[in-house]
Amino acid sequence: MVRFHDGRKATGFSLLEVLVAIVVLSVGLLALAALQGSLSRASADAKARARVAAMLTARIDELRSGGYGSLAPEGAAAPLTSVEGAAGDGCDNDGSADDWLDCAREQANLGSLSVQQTVNTWYGDATFATPAPAPANQNPRTAQFKRVGLVATWTDATGGVHSNQLVSDISSMSLTNFVVVPPDPTENPTGGPIVRTIDPATSGVLPIAMGPEDQQMMNGTGNPTPELIGQGKNQEIVGTRFSVLNYTPPQQFGDSSVVVTKRFDNEVIKCSCRYGAGGANLPEIYRTALWPAIWTGDAYAVHIPDGNIAAPGQTKASGPRSGVTQSELCQECCRDHHDSGTGVEFDPERVGEEIKYDAAANGALSPANTNGGTYVDSCRLVRIDGFWRTAADLYQRQFGLLETKPDDNGVPAKSREPTDAAVAQYTTFVKDYLALYDGSQAVPPGATPQAEFLSEFPTTPITLPVVSNTDYRFLHARGLYVDHLEEKAREKVSEAFADGDDDPCPSGDAEADCILQFLPFTTANLTEIAAWTAAPEGIINVNSANLLATDPDDPSGGRTTGIANGTAQNTAQTRSSNSGIAVYSPNVNLGGVDEADVDETHQQSQQFDVGGPPGPTFDVRALGGGGNPFVFFSLGIDNDVECFKPAGTDHRCGTSPGTILPQQGTVSIRRYNYEDTTSTQMSFTCQGNKAASGIVAVPTFHNFTLASATFNGVNGTIAASVNEGMLIESTSVLFAAVAEGGLAIATFTEEGSPQLATIDSCKASQGTFTQITWNTPWR
């Protein structure tokens, strides 16, 4: 048989090929399905990890805000666990202590979530190598911090176990750096890093040269500035801060920068304390009372007696009084500031035993009850290795006035700056006085510095040719402070006077220059801190409404004008110890270390001779409203001129010479609304969910309106009030005829009930307020 083949190949897929394709496709689809599941699980795991990490971070922040002393227990605590479906383990946001854990579990869609907390205290000097327990023979200066570890463990939907850990080191101390560092010079000196700042010799700062001539250094004290607490219009002044710098003279590097070799930060505060409020009532790190920080000849250090015996304050268990707005450093002040009469003391020059005093509302002092009683105190603190430590008390050795510069026309005291001659005389005086320290005793022998200073600085009377509300004259007050020298400092000073190989004062250098670098001295601008008073009253007007927060280039303290012909004295006065520099209201008794401290004052007077014919005057009497509102007038060539108020009299408005009355004029009255406090029982939940209650002094606002205004019995036209701020509201009155010797009477009435502040935030301990921040919308 013959077979024929057409030459074409068969078409289609064989069964084997189809089976292979199906297998390959199935494997690919299964891989994609597995990948999709893996991606879903990875996404869920990432979400869970992110939520757990956020929970741990928030928990650390919560523990940190609760306070150093609240970080307990020591070591590993029992784990906290939240389980899906378990009773009470739900995110109900009911304020329960475990909501943070329950909510994290639910939001991460976990079956269970547990967290274990571990707290260890680490101690060390140069290095931190020892966790808890505390090292043997620990002394109060041993540095420490707490290391907090949180380990979270959870199970996923498949039952897999996962964990995450967060560790943080916590201390209740804060560090602050105020040095402004300019750009480095093009050529740096060798010898290691340097700390530089702009020349600190600004307005109000008088540098004193010290040290050997070939190693000249400057000592300059910055202008005291206020320590403010609160925010915005709720800020209050609770103390003053100033820094003492040792630095190289400027221009060393061809610019205005200087090299800072030493910096001593000081803060002086006023505190209200209570016996028994310390001890276990304070956070753990604050419970151990310290001895005074004293000058060693080179720096400040906390005194540690032989045997490391407890400081006197340890048995007093004093702490800050609750419900009082004051510096947080009052914890250290109230705790430490106690003397036993033996060894190194905070007030080594005190006469008699230490007695604490409480201050009544009128400023009167009475001995405090040592069994739970309250008292007022004032402390100086210095920064040592970044920590604020209670230091030995300030001692003002001299206080006086420096002649201020005239203007370009030679009119005296028209500038706020001391004259070059006064600065030179004052510098010489400081060096001569400090040279009296020879290391043989804690204070210099010989005549009192105040007598020496007054003999060198005769104060020439300042003449005001005519009575004027706008002819301002300025004064400058200065105080010299030198610490009581303890043994280490005296030894250092003695070495400076000794001759030998280790003599720190090379031959030929003046001892007055060389000795200064070993003495703890401060020469401070007290213009805004001193109390300024006029005597007799009615001839000059003296500004004592000091504004410590203002620019030191424009101080208001001691500013003087003439208001009547005659001669009067402007007297500046300060208290001699801590309480004299703690705040800017020295006329009010804010409490010294003891009763005698209030009476120890230094003062100096400047004579003013006021002459020449003034313009005609009239008076303004304000009834109701604030106790001492401001009064201004506008008429003729006088526009918005302030009327002065001698004590116990009406506001006296003096016009310019040549003014003819009667004529139409406007009187503006300002700051008649005022704030005081009302003692009120309050309850509130403070930081850390801590409840507190008690009677507190609540800021209270009184709002007034000008109800009527007359001049010699004739009504004036009252304009709408201008509210630039509720406490500085003003109202103007237009009078048709302002007559010489006439009397304007402005009567205010209160609008509605006084407005009480509300609590914005607070801190509490054992159910009582320790600090309150108020909502005061009128500020």
Automatic annotation (TrEMBL):
It comes from Noviluteimonas lactosilytica. Keywords: Membrane, Transmembrane, Transmembrane helix. It holds the Pfam family N_methyl. The chain crosses the membrane at residues 12-35. InterPro entries: N_methyl_site. This is Prepilin-type N-terminal cleavage/methylation domain-containing protein. PROSITE patterns: PROKAR_NTER_METHYL.
